Amino acid sequence: MNRELHIGREYRHFKGRTYLPQKVVRNADDPEQLMIVYCDTSAGEWWVRPLDEFLSEVDHDKYPDVKQKWRFECAEEEQE
Description:
Blueprint: E1 11-13, E2 18-27, E3 30-39, E4 45-50, H1 51-54, E5 72-74, H2 75-79
Antiparallel strand pairs: 1-2, 1-5, 2-3, 3-4
């Protein structure tokens, strides 16, 4: 996978919410990289998600009507 991650930029999840990646971290017991992301909702929630999953494509078999290619797309790149 060769996508560039932009920490601090707004990303749109394919289901509609927006998220701000804050940091890439590692689990002490596992080399897997994880993302800490802030979800811009009225509750202001923090989430942890595997980096590979954050950068992956939408499962179009499971969600055939979704037009977005990536699970999370950088909103600023769409405007360029």
